[in-house]
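Workshop exercise sheet. Pairs work together: one partner reads the sequence aloud, the other fills in the structure field after running the prediction. Swap roles for the next sheet.
Pair: D.N. / O.F.
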Amino acid sequence: MPNRSVVQTASAPKAIGPYSQAILANGFVFCSGQIPLDATTGNIVVGGIEAQTHQVLKNLSAVLQAAGSDLQHVVKTTVFLASMNDFVAMNGVYATYFSQDPPGRSAVEVAKLPRGALVEIEAIAVI
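Structure field:
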């Protein structure tokens, strides 16, 4: 029987649907996509793609910490962008969080993101 538990932290935004912030299973952390919501206010942060990417990665970091992991243990991310025109700016911020041995990554443009966000990132990490 696999070992599976729900990860929940008040340091990251609450789920806005029927999903968990993350699931811890057999030494892996499967983080749901984070959008740039401020955990305190529940609002999207202002300031464009750079500010939103910082907030998303702060949110992911908080979820990973609650699971007993961190950004350095991320093995795969998927980046969803409302516009691929924001790729270079997002990538510049992203690189500051994953400066050494970055994880595998996919980045795609999507038609729309929840709450009008410009970016959403999901991650898989190890403990």
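Discussion prompt: The first strand starts at residue 4 and ends at 7. What would you look at next?
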